[in-house]
Amino acid sequence: MTVTDTDQHHNTHEGESHGLSDMGYVKIAVFLAAVTAIEVALSYTQDQLGAAFLPLLLILMGVKFFCVILYFMHLKFDSKLFGLMFYIGMFLAIGCYGVFLLSMHFFSS
Amino acid sequence: MADTAVAPATGHDAHDDHGAHHSSTGLSNNKLAMWMFLGSECLLFGGLISTYMLYRGRHSENLGPDQVWDIPFTSASSFVLLMSSLTMVLAVSSAHRKDDRNTKVWLMVTALLGALFVAGQVYEFTTFYREGLGFTTSLFSSSFYTLTGFHGVHVTVGIIMLTSLVGMIGKNRVPGDKAETVELFGLYWHFVDVVWILIFTLVYLIPA
Amino acid sequence: MAIIERPTDTPAVVSPDAAPAVATPATSYGVFRRPVETTGWKSWLFTIDHKKLGIMYGVVAMAFFVIGGIEALLIRLQLAGPDGTVLSADAYNQMFTMHATTMVFLFVMPMAAAFANYMVPLQIGARDVAFPRINAFGFWTFLFGGLFLNTSWILGGAADGGWFMYAPNSSVAFSPTNGVDFWALGLQITGIASLTGAINLIVTVINMRAPGMSLMKVPIFTWMIMVVQFLLLFAIPVITVALFLLMFQRSFDATFFSVEAGADPLLWQHLFWIFGHPEVYIIVLPAFGIVSEVLPVFSKKPLFGYPLVVFSGAAIGFVGWGVWAHHMFASGLGPISVAVFSVATMAIAIPTGVKIINWVMTMWGGKLKFTVPMLYAVGVIVQFTIGGLSGVTHSVAPSDTQQTDTYYIVAHFHYVIFGGAVLGLFSGLYYWWPKMFGKMLNERMGRWNFWLTIIGMNLTFGPMHVLGLQGQPRRMYVWTENRAGDGFFNIGFWNLIASIGAFVLALGVLLFFVNIYVSHRKGTQKAPLDPWDARSLEWITTSPPKEHNFDRTPTVGHLDEFFHRKYEDRGEGDHHDYHQVATAEEIIAEEEAKGDSHIHLPSPSYWPILLSLALPIMAYGVIYNIWLIVGGAALALLSMYGWGMEPHTAPDDDYDPPAAGTELEVAAHG
Q: What is the mean pLDDT of chain C?
């Protein structure tokens, strides 16, 4: 995440611009590709990783998810109201479907 | 025509003396609507993903995820879709600089990468089908094809919209704010990409 | 019509009849020349005016109300006596399925949409909704979806699995006609209408409020509508998933809900009720909003605890997402799930109770005036409370297990839906009728209408409590004398009472239509501008409002803006002493005199109705022939291109004479 952090500082100095510079976006894309590569690599070593495999993969997925949402979709730079609309949907989805799967004993099987 | 139809977001100081009222929050109506639509889509894909999760283990002995997945291939097509997000964001960036030529180029590249992804998906589906995994073969296959099919339809709709947008920019017939229109298409496209990020990890990489 | 020109140098008094000069487009734009008619059928077909769309929503919803009502009467005729022969078992199944589906999706929801469309822009001082063309698309999609659903009656039989269409009854083996296919696709189409409407109205309320109207000065009805639209926004996609799975199961042989294939039928139940429980609040909250508007007006007091009413409405909306499984207590969820959902369900009674308290406190010490809208509003408080209390008995899981699938459930939700939502909607009809049509509905007849409805509904749904606790199952198509029981609990007696009540109720509703006719006969008086001494913004304009709603965009300083313009507070400190300083006529005349000189309204369009038309064509294609899907998709694509290339408002140079001077647009796209 160091790549993205430096770019964000860079951006705030520009004042009211629309997100990052083109170079910043390229860096994020490289970062995303790298994380994807790590994910794929992990999936081949799951036997060695054991219990750490699942949480690791989910965290990497979350990192990619929020990179796209925050930077490519500008949520980090845009009005909070846009984010609110999206996050309500996201959390309702996680909450409702999570409870649904829980009640179907999905996580315990 | 982009000039006659002043977007509410840009007009909030220009006309105050006439008592007109513009966007109360200063935000664009279109963007707000697009974000709401995407929030709503979360529950659509959430439902499809949960259905898949519930049924992913219900298949015959030799036709489950572990037997049919081709991780290197799917990784490559995931990479293609991920890169289309980059080209999309570059298109938005060009549109904000009012650089029509580059906007069109990047949008076209995005559409092509999207098409490549869909082609990959068609190839994957036909391979699975030849191996005996039809839509109705098992609960696993039905829910898998439904989930990825819905995603594929979203990508396809996106490709149609992107190519149409390129044409409209070329003929200078985009109603309203051009940069904002490109940005809205971008939001949709990135969302579709984000859904694939989830699907790739949850469906392909995590074993059933 | 899109531009209104007003002579800028003569801001003198404008008489009500003298409309401002209207400019019409001279050249075409897009593929076709844009429709410009302001009268005649074309002005309705291609309109994007939220008021015309609101009226059309209302008319269509009322037509479906009559259809759903006739279905209910047939059900009650069948059950009036032992061994009923009015309907066959098969027809009876179709009847109750379509009765529920029609009433929920084609009457209550669109009727609320009618008020939302008509009143929300007026209440927030806007000239239209944020996306007028999407608004038109929503209406036509709803209409075509509803018609599509009902064509199943003549195409082999309607859906017959009950309104929540549980598996396995929804599968081809148990429902071999195309009824369930029509049901799934029809609801899919009306779902699109609801979703687009939801986005549209939320953006409207967030972004198009009059200057000075902060969120806590938004009229309560608009607030409740906004909560409802959020529920729709996030609930519709869930039912969309469920309906798609059902369609794939029935049309393409998938086995998502077939136990024999190893599937879990509870998947459908979960998806349906994750949608279905927010849906309950989607149905009832608009009525709560109407009641909260009507009570203060006829109590001559501001709404008691406005912020509490707003927050409890939002709380109901939020907690409503966490209680869906209380519809499934009898399905073997497991003790932990049942306990959790039971507690959550009891919790949701709290914000609902807060609302009831607020209403009662609004009336407390007020100068009550029992007009017909007020009677209906009080009716809601009383009847809904009864339904709410029987609802609390369901939240206790052991008791619910007794009551599941009995008439007790039927009694409960009719008290909630009819006693809450429908009475509230009628309150709104009587209250806003003079605003929408410029004529008062006859009060005397309205009273008959009200009392017959109230007596009818209690006669119909009251006995169902007894029937249910006696064990009469829901959806039972026939009962026999020798198993009817004895004495007070003889189900034959109570079934007969319920059936008689249904006809009393029907008579009451019929009187409403007679009332419309009587009130609009030649020679009836025009309604005064402010017949009820109302409080909110929609009354600061003529009745019915002009196409551009307000001559001047109002500036808002108070929650009850209109009231505060009419009355001045001469009290000191906490003591209020209101004196009338202006009449409605004076206030509206002043607004007219200072009207905006150049109003830019969005233009009508052909594309919304064409795009909507493509949807049922594709749906017929799914059932009958794949080429219909292709044709429908082609029409949809064509319409989208037409729509996409058409600016929301025809540009100025399209007009003859060209509009001069600076721009002044409604902030509206679509």
A: 89
Give the three-class secondary structure for B121: helix
For residue C371, give the amino acid letter.
T
Q: What are the domain boundaries of chain A?
A: 2-78, 79-109
Interface of A with C in 5-64 (CB under 8 A): none
pLDDT at A20: 84
CATH code of C179's domain: 1.20.210.10
C498 vs C668: CA distance, rounded Å: 50
Give the architecture (CATH level 2) of B29-205: Up-down Bundle (1.20)
Question: In what helix (H) or strand (E) does residue C578 lie, and over which residues does it extend?
Answer: strand C578-580
Q: Looking at the 3D structure of chain C, how many domains does it have?
A: 1
Question: Of the given ranges (A79-83, C40-44, C420-424, C617-621), which has the lowest mean pLDDT?
Answer: C40-44
Instruction: For residues C653 and C665, give the distance between their C-alpha atoms in angstroms, rounded to a whole number.
Output: 15
Q: Does B122 touch chain A (CB under 8 A)?
A: no
Q: Which stretch of A48-57, B76-85, C214-223, C456-465 has the lowest confidence by average pLDDT?
A: A48-57
Interface of B with C in 6-45 (CB under 8 A): 6-8, 11, 15, 18-25, 27, 29-30, 32-33, 36-37, 39-44
Query: Could you tell me how many CB contacts below 8 A there are between chain A and chain B?
Result: 123
Which residue of chain B comes nearest to A44, CA vs CA?
Answer: B205
Interchain proximity B54–A101, CB inside 8 Å: yes
Residue C539 tokens read as 């009354």
Domain ranges, residue C447: 50-481+498-519
| ipTM over 0.95 threshold | no
The region of weakest confidence among B150-164, C410-424, C485-499 is C485-499
> Both tokens of residue C507?
């008579």
CB contact under 8 A, C238 and A104: no
Token pair 């070593």 in the structure block, residue: A45
Q: Which residues of A touch C343 (CB under 8 A)?
A: none
The span from the CA of C181 to the CA of C307, in Å, is 45
Listed residue (C159, C210, C37, C144) closest to C606, CA to CA: C37
Q: Is residue C176 part of a domain?
A: yes
Within 8 A of C267 by CB-CB distance, chain A residues are 104
CA triplet C353, C355, C361: central angle to 5 degrees? Answer: 105
Residue C373 lies in a domain: yes
C413 within a domain of the structure (yes/no): yes
Residue C156 Ramachandran class (φ > 0 left, ψ -120 to 50 alpha, else beta): left
Name the burial class of residue C285, with classes exposed (0-12), middle (13-18) and buried (19+) by CB atoms within 10 angstroms of its CB.
buried
